Amino acid sequence: MMRLDGQRVLFYLSLALAVLLLLLPLPAALRPLRPWWPALVLVYWVLEAPGRVGLATAFLTGLAADLLAGTLLGDQALRLTVVVFLALRFRARLRFFPMTQQALALLLLLANDALLRWLIRVVSGVPLPPPLAWAAPLAGAALWPFVFLLLDALRARLRLREP
Amino acid sequence: MALTRDGPRSLGEAATGGTLRLAGYLLLGVMLMMFDHRNGWLPRLRGAAAMLVQPAWRLAATPGRLVEDARRQLASAAYLRRENARLRDNLLLANVRIARMQALVRQNRQLKRLLDAVQSLQMQGQLARVMDIDLDPFRRRMVINRGARQGVHVGQPVVDAHGVMGQVTEVLPDTAVVLLVTDPSSALPVVDARSGVRTLAYGAGRGDLLDLPDLPVTADVRVGDELLSSGLGGRFPAGFPVGRITALKPDASGSYLRAVARPLAHLDRSDHVLLLRDLAEPFGPPAPAPAAGPPAALLGPAAAGSAAHPAPALRHGAGA
Do residues B91 and B148 both lie within one domain? Predict the structure, then answer.
């Protein structure tokens, strides 16, 4: 169980990197468009290795992101849980979509999340995101093929080396 | 090996058991948010998790620092010479200005002594470096590399060479979070340097501007006026430049003027900032006197042990 398995390392490393990427400084003009990396990475793992990702993983990842980025505690945790739940629910279909359709599905997932984020911010009275932030799901969906191919390539390389 | 582990959960199981667990996690998330919102759990939790948060912040700041270092390494000699000349000019100007100020300070001190006032403008600063990371992208905050171990405490004002930047809102052992003046939850008492009109400058949140929503229609405020911190409230010292008014228009009801100001501090470009140590004496009414009870003598031995403020009680007794 505690064996150092390449894929497991890649899994945790990719999650940690995704959370750290949230903090990466961007030019002020691009800041509202910041893609939500943990969601992209988690959805990838849901599609490719659902045994690894459950709602608990999503919740804990979100909690770590909240803690680091200083958003309302539980905000990103809740939203990530919803994203992962939906991805798990539609996994059978999502898996066999061609890449463009997958990106489109991700756009819907992230748009749903943008709505949820707006709702949470309205209810908790935190400053609302600027209008440009509604375009962030587009950035996320545009990046999806790259995230997918990168992680897939890394995983394939690990699998070749392992057996 | 890895492939066999890929599908242990059947689709049906994920569908039925999942919904219930989703509801559980949603409830947990909402409860966490409520507790955090009402009791401010996050800073405390972050304080407890500082051992984890600080290295993560430092790690996230590394790319920015590497870029900055590379830029410095690659800066050409001509650029450095030009910058050096510019800085030297600035220093000369600043020294001349300080020399002139010295005379004013002396004069001011004499006048103060005549007036028997004790307010002092003396203060000390502590330099800190801005860590290159973005927190929650819809708020205006920054992280600096000085914390509780270096004597930083919540509420300390932060300035740069051009004006007020914000105040410390959260302190970890070696880092601190600064709320910028442009954050929507920030309010700063300011005074118009030209006319002396006092008001509050709120963070507009959008586009890095300051919002002055409640100026009377008759207020003597013009576009281009410089705003200084007024020192009211006692948190920010008086007289630091804050912003310059860029637009002025009546608000929706027509009974107030609404001004928009651009902050003078370089909020996005500052590398080093100054944490101010000693606050100027707060203006405003003196601290409330301790509640005056009956003279200590009348309270008997019970009060003698627990009297928190023996001095006022004694004075009271002497007067009676």
Answer: no
A125 — pLDDT class (breaks 50, 70, 90): confident
Cβ proximity of B226 and B241 under 8 Å:
yes
CA B286, distance to chain mean position in Å, is 24
Residue B93 lies in a domain: yes
d(CA A74, CA B183): 22
What ipTM was reported for this prediction? 0.75
> In terms of Cα–Cα distance, which of A33, A43, A50 is closest to A81?
A43
Residue B284 in domain: no
**Is B157 within a domain?**
yes
Question: Is B25 in contact with A55 (Cβ distance < 8 A)?
Answer: yes
* Whether B134 and A162 lie within 8 Å, measured CB to CB: no
Q: Which of B13, B33, B139 to mutate to test the interface with A (most CBs of A within 10 A)?
A: B33
Total number of domains constituting chain B? 3
pLDDT tens digit sequence for B17-28: 678 888 888 888
pLDDT in tens, B27-75: 888 888 887 777 766 667 777 777 778 888 888 888 878 887 887 778 7
Residues B68 and B130 in one domain: no
Range of the domain at B217: 122-276
